[in-house]
Predict the structure.
Amino acid sequence: MEHLIVTLPRGIKVDVFEFMEELLRKRVQEEFAEYTSGTNPDYMYQDKLLFIDLMCQRLHHADPDTKVNRLIKKTFEYQLDEYGDIMDESEFLSKEFMGDCYQLGQEDHKLYSRNFTGDHHTDERIMLVESIVIEAIMSYTREEHEPDQHI
């Protein structure tokens, strides 16, 4: 069986082909409880959505410097291969190129993606993990995870 380990926020590691849903939910909620230990419950949805955003960034390996460098190289290579000339550095300051950079950033924050690995089956498993994490985070309530005060 294949193995692909993804790292979620707070260092949660998951083999997308070999995990137990209930254990993943429990682990995510435990880490989220620690993550939000100082949060006023009136503002917990901000932390919930931030946690989900962080998960997307991690799954997409969203590093702006690396992504923009790759785009510059691909654009330069395309121009050289297709037209046989070298682009002027000012062409990377165009509105079109900046729009391409913005689009890259947008892709790095989507829950649905065909670009996690490029393999449909593997990407489907990653999206299953995402769904479980989202459900665990959104259903989390502090009361369920507070230590029992009654002895």
